[in-house]
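PROTOCOL LOG
Step 1. Enter all chains and additional molecules of the complex.
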Amino acid sequence: MPEARTIVIDPVTRIEGHSKITIHLDDQGKVEDARFHVTQFRGFEKFCEGRPFAEMPSLMARICGICPVSHLIASSKACDALLAVRIPPTAEKLRRIFGIAQVVQSHALSLFHLSSPDLLLGMDADPAESHIFGVYAKNPALARDGIALRKFGQQIIERLGGKRIHPAWVVPGGVSDPLTLEDRDAILKTIPEALAIALRSLEWLKSTTERFREEIAAFGNFASLFMGIVKKGGGLTFYDGDIRVVDEEGAIVADGLDPARYFAYLGEKAEPWSYLKSAYFLPRGYPGGMYRVGPLARLNICTSCGTPRADEALAEFRKLQTNAVLSSFHYHQARLVEILYCVERIEQLLNDPEILSKHVRAVARPNAFEGVGVAEAPRGTLLHHYKIDENGLIRWANLIIATGQNNLAMNRSVLQVARQYVDGEKITRGMLNRVEAVIRAYDPCLSCSTHALGQMALSVQLIRPDGTISDEVRR
Amino acid sequence: MHSRATPCVAIIAYGNPLRSDDGIGWHAAEILRKELDSVQVEVVCVHQLTPDIAANLADADGVIFLDAAQTGEPGEIRCARVEANESGQQFSHSLSPGQVLALADHLYGKQPDAFMVSVAGESFDHGDALSETLQSALPALVRTVVGLIARLAPRFDSSDFEARNTCVRAQLPI
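Step 2. Run joint prediction.
Step 3. Record the structure below.
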């Protein structure tokens, strides 16, 4: 009789950070359970204690090299709350441009550099071919588009913030420098190409969907809640709004929730097998309060995008499934709809008559001992919560990261894929690829809550109950 | 920010400037960016080489990669030609210079002459300052790169270069 075994994928490749997956098989070789383990630890919340609050945006931006701008914005908004100031309107618009430029480059990285090998070369492709070089060999135009789109976002960040990674331009009270006419015009010139790339990439992705019918049905295709911030009236936003929660039917479960009171409706639970905490919607308990954030969730909760081409793409997106779009495979398409929105929105904001105003910062001393900042990061809702003492030093900090909010859903997705594809008698390339690919669909940023160091590799082991290895595959 | 829309030479400095000597390329690049702004040089500073860097080579006649080396006598400057080469770890966040060149060739049909200039580091500890040894090596590194630019760029304005080079020499304790 076959014996119970565990399959370990360690580490998972082509994601932001380090993790491993374990798949537990029963005596019959059937999948009993599967877990996504985050194996890094960082501790930003602890080591910022005692620092002056004004340092927080720059410190928090160091959490991640992919989405530093989101941390910069959420942190600065928390500091705005400590100052109790209303930032100048132009500063808010510039922050919006900065934030969504980062969404473009981050989404492009996820789709074109990390997931396109799966989509272009197929889930059964040889891992030795499934990388950016495999993409250029198969479709160099797509590879060029991915690079150009990412560059579009990076160059906006660089023009506004002075550098493409870890810029410190967003500060408590606004931004440090106004936008120049030269930079505004230079960015506007790049809009048409970015728009064209976004549109043709969307067409390309839609044309591949038929090939992945089976994966769409099995990649995190289950009922869950979806959460994010929306504008008043329900429009898509990445900068400011109230929390909305919808269910698998697309029905609004909660609306108009104040992000500053997140602790009243969001819980976090730590499991002994992962450094990544799992967030859940408190009214439904743990783990019943599982919810998803990020592109798929944002498009499920919003009433419209608010820009013409993105709204057309949203209407088409919503036809993918009845009611809410449930399959996490569709995170990819949601990313492209959002890229389209971001490019259109950047153009709108740059053409705003106030955008070149020199008044971009409000100055004040701390006027509150506690502040919460929220923003929609590329991967989902991001919350920074600080408490300071009478000297303005950080006394306590709490960060709710998007990837933690997707943790329950990612675990559930790994289990769903494992049950669909894993045959306990043998490890196949396609099986491993799919288990990893479903995690990539969420684009988890483990660096945001941990620390990435070293090179990635992949080994899969079949481990007997006594701990000995019965089979092993290395990549 | 990019210095030129159609540069002759791309200088790609990479490393972590918060890891002391690992940031030597960035330090040199900042001097070069300031001093060579009027000539056709594009200076890019990044933490790691990613596929996007290939696009920076699309208009370049030559490329100079600047990095710290973990081996060798601290302060020792090495200069070696780099050829396009796809092989090695296929990780999209961290390509080798040869892989970036291979990408530039395949995606943009560009095969610029390329050199890797590295300096053996002494300290890779936390901090944004160079060790004394590498601080001392910085002027020689800048001189090496300026010399390579003259060699790589057929459209390079030599009179401008001389003037600029003098400026670099005057500013630095060479």
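Step 4. Note key features.
Residues 133 and 143 of chain A are 9 Å apart (CA to CA).
The longest strand of chain A covers residues 380-388.
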